[in-house]
Amino acid sequence: MFCTSCGREMASEDAFCPKCGTASGAAATARAAAGPHQRLARSVRNKKVAGVCAGFANYFGMDVTLVRVLWLITVLCVGTGVLAYIVCWIVMPVEDTQAAVAVTPQRV
């Protein structure tokens, strides 16, 4: 499979192009399989600290690295990012692991 934006070859299960970050067909398929009523929840399979950024990335269909960079910019520029992260860590529920396994494409 090739990226429609930059033309770089990528794996068929990649949700985003590793070069330009454009969403691929796998991202749309994952969102469609998740259903129309996707909940905002902390990720258990793609987390670095608590899974908050990965949860927002899954909910909005974005690349998790982009969400992490935006959150870091919020922490450094505005200063309220740390407090917001802690609040989200407490308030956001943990995603259902059975649903995450069913939606997650597996590399072979």
Note down, in words, how this protein is organized.
With 108 residues, the chain is an all-alpha fold. The protein folds into two domains: 1-36, no CATH class; 38-103, no CATH class. The chain contains five helices and no strands. It has helices at 25-34, 52-60, 64-77, 81-91, 97-103. Helix 2 packs across helix 3. The longest helix has 14 residues, at 64-77. The radius of gyration is 15 Å and the shape is globular.
Helix/strand layout:
Elements: H1 25-34, H2 52-60, H3 64-77, H4 81-91, H5 97-103
Helix pairs in contact: 2-3
Please supply descriptive tags for the structure shown above:
108 residues, mainly alpha, 2 domains, 0% strand
The proportion of residues forming helix, as a percent range, comes to 40-55%
Domain tally: 2
Regarding quaternary structure, what we see is single chain
Shape: globular
Supply the number of helical segments.
Answer: 5
| Largest sheet properties | none
Distance between the termini: 15 Å
* Rounded radius of gyration (Å): 15 Å
Q: Which structural class fits the helix and strand makeup?
A: mainly alpha
H/E element sequence: HHHHH
Count the E strands. Answer: 0
Rounded average pLDDT: 75
The fraction of residues in strands falls at under 5%
Unreliable stretches covering 5 or more consecutive residues: none
